[in-house]
Each structure stands twice: as C-alpha cells, then as structure tokens.
Amino acid sequence: MLRRSLPFLILAAALFAYNFSLGVSRTIQNNFWVDVLKLRPDQMGILITARETPGFLTILIAAITMRIAPARLGTICFLIMAVGYYAYGMATSFGTIIPGVLFASIGFHLWITLSGSFSLAVAKESDAGSVLGDLQAVGFFAGLLGMLGVFAGIGAIGYPLAFAISGVAMLVGAVAIFRFPSELVHRSPQRAVVRRRYGLFYLLNFLEGCRFELFQAFGIYLLVQQYRQPVQTIAILFILVAVGSAVLSPTIGRLIDRFGERPTMTIGYVGMLITFLGFALWHDALVATILYVAYNVFLLSEIGVNTYLKKVASPEDVRPSLATGVTMMHVPALVVPILGGTLWNMFGFEVPFLLGAAFIVGSMGATQFIPRRVAAPVFEPVPSA
Prior knowledge:
The chain has helices at 6-36, 41-56, 58-64, 70-90, 94-121, 128-178, 199-226, 231-259, 261-281, 285-299, 303-312, 315-330, 336-347, 350-367.
C-alpha cells in the first residue's frame, strides 16, 4: 500500500479520518440520545426523519453543487460533517440536537455521491480491484479503531469530548481531501432514470427503505431504552457487525452468483422476518442483542437487489438507476420513522417491529417476481427519462 501514488495516499488519509469519525459518533449516539437527552420514541422518529431527509434530496443537492471542483466540494462535505458531529456533543435537548443531525447528514449524503469518483480516480483499469480493496481495508480498520476507542475510553472522556474527537477527525479528513488533485476526478451530471421495466427494482428499494428506516430509528434505541444496554455493549455489537460483514459479504456474493438473487434474498428475508418478530415478541435483553447481530448478517443478502439491476438494465442506465433506487429508499424516511415512534408511544415498542415485519413480508413477496435465473437482455439505447 505504501507504494501507491500520492493521490491514493491522500485519499486513504481522508477515508481513514472519515471512517474513524463515524466509528466513534455512530457507536455512541444512541446511548447519548437516551442517557443524556432522554429522547422519547416519537422524538426519535422525528430525529431519524430529519437525518434521512437529505438522503431523499441527494440528487438535487449534487446537481446544485456540480460546478464546484471535486476536491473543494469534498472539503466542504467534511467541514459540514465536522461541525455536525461536534454539535452533537453540545446538545442538551431534543431541539438542540436537530441542527447537528441535519449538518452531519447533509455532509454525509453529499460525500456519498462523490466518494466513488475519488476512489476510481486513483485506480487504473489494470489494478482497480486491488486499489478499491486497499481503500476499503483502510476504512474498515479506521472504523474498527474508532469503535475500539469508544469501548476502551468512553467512560473516562464522556460524550461531549467523544463527539469533539469525531469532529476533529473530520477536520483532518477535510485537510487531506483538500490536497487531492481535482483534475483526476471525472465529473458527470447526477441524474435519475425512471423506466417501467425497472419497476421491480424500485419497489424492492422502497420496501427496503420502509424496513431500514424503522430499524435505523429503533433497533439500537430498543437495546438502550428498553434493555438499558451500556455504550460498551453497543460498541462490541458494532465491532461484531463490522467484522462479520467484512468476512461474510464475499460468501453472500458467491451464493448469489451460484444460486441467483431470488432464493438467496428469500432466505435473507426469512431471517430478517424472524429477527423482527423476535424483537417484538421475545422480551429478553440477551435475545434482542443476538437478534441485532443476526439481522445484520441476513441484511447482506440485499446486495442481490443491485446485482438484479445490473443484469436487467442497459449499461447506460445502471448508475442513474442506482441513484433512483437510493431516492426510493429514502422516500419512506419522510413518514415511516415518525409513524413508528407514534405507534411505540401509543401501543408499546412491539408495534413498530411488527410493522417492520409486515414490510419484510412485502419484500419477500416482491422478490418472488425475480426470475430464478436472470438473463441480461440486449437493449437499444433509449433517451433518459
């Protein structure tokens, strides 16, 4: 890795700082929201909706900022995230946490639209796989280091200083990405493609978003608020999920290649359904903790949604259709978390997870429309919608 080009090393430094920051802030935020801010379930729903709304507007934001040089825009993303995560630690109530959440989310979602272009800019056709693999390894190691830091030191430093460290790490990333040569990054317009023949792909993304938003809002929140799991336990869970995902992702990919998207995703959805029903019906802290890890393992099967698109879409439609899929995933963020929080307040924590189970059943049904073996058709070029 040390023999890589200077742009690679600059990007690796930025990604290290970025993933370390996320490793710290995301590990502690739920405990902070419950232990310090005392957020109710309905407030959690509103908070997650606020956090995910910029994801719904990703394409619009990217289009508005397209004329800014990539390195400068990347720097802006990191600075916005630095302000957001630092502001987390300054919050003292539900009202004061919202600005930090919005700032961090805007920077995060805008950076997501850029990060792939930076990674491809430092890779040649002959070594793209190894370059991207090295960058992924840097990010994984940095995130793991942040989680381990939380596990070892959160009791000594407290939440405000931990969020400040997360913000400072983003500042380091901003300094690094500012030095990246913008002329290496290929800039193309961000656009979305909507075609009738990709309707199943859009539906799968929408249903995934419904379930995803509920789990994002209430998965860890359940462990902290209902079962009083300390931040050290949450850090261990995040570490287990990160390591498990890194180890099992290639295996899931090979299963999809061998057996196809429909059977692999169906098994994954059955597992997710069991975990959601377990959250709702089995009231035990240890069981809920195990189910959280199991859910994230089954979640890996959803890479089949994108491999399905790759097989059925014409080449020029793949990237913009993925952008449309991201937008479809974020549509439920405008309603579902608030609905889940309201249901929790009115009827108990079981109801949001039962609602999530219903969405999983919907995903399972939609998956059955994927052919057992998807043959890539030949399409004539069609103007984008």
